[in-house]
């Protein structure tokens, strides 16, 4: 395909913005998701989530959305689901895709989605680490215990990659998980839920509850929490499905 045709193809497609979750970084999407989207001609933006607080994170995501012309599809993993739910009211956003992500409602936090139903093991698998900023403000970071990481987040990820994920995990401020949403874009925009059936983070009852109330299209996978790594092709397929649905 010549350059002009490639540009025309890309301009007809929504920009896909990828939003990672807690204890991870943008490299989450480099195991096939970005590559698949680029092969499909999608403009891609990868958001480096600060993980400092829901409204801080949303503000930074909004600043990225402000640089994009045309329609946007927001794609999240894990805690990123709360961020895209709050930020998704931007009129550019045409669809929301949740890959192993919570879908909080107004007045709810990420923690509410982890605790509404029994069965989630996140709270028992993390360490809480206090920090102090130069101005004296204190807070608490959350990291997953090394000996729990594989079980909790990546049971089907190869051992060499798992070791890298453990070593490079980024702390999330505990406050980000307890911040309460003031808007929920899935109430007015189409959503897709990619549901990992082998995920000990979010109870299956919670996934079903959230998808039912949002009237989401559901795709079930025999995957751990690490869907963008274990099933990148499915993530790309769902994005393509969403793009077709919102550009008819």
Automatic annotation (TrEMBL):
Residues 16-238 form the AB hydrolase-1 domain. This is AB hydrolase-1 domain-containing protein.
